[in-house]
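Collaborator request, handled under Task 6.
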Amino acid sequence: MKADLEMNLIHDGRDWIVRSEKLEARGENFADLDEDLKRTLRDSGDYPQGSHLTVFMGFDFDTIPTWLRQYHTHYFNRFVAVDL
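Structure tokens returned to the collaborator:
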């Protein structure tokens, strides 16, 4: 699957956060994260209303301690389809 936008995904202990060079969205759960992402994309002015985007969220393994990385199968990447 090809993504229109690639973002880094982390968890800060409370919220899921996705970031790119220009954008950031967050939410306590994935539903909240996806809604904030839609709002952030709309508000950015970079994408016209009615756009359909596929967003790749790649988990940033640098945010977890090295000794925990052996359990990396517990972490994941996401593709999200967003309609603006």
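The cover message to the collaborator said: "The chain has one domain: 5-83. Residues 15 and 72 are 19 Å apart (CA to CA). Please let us know whether this matches your experimental observations."
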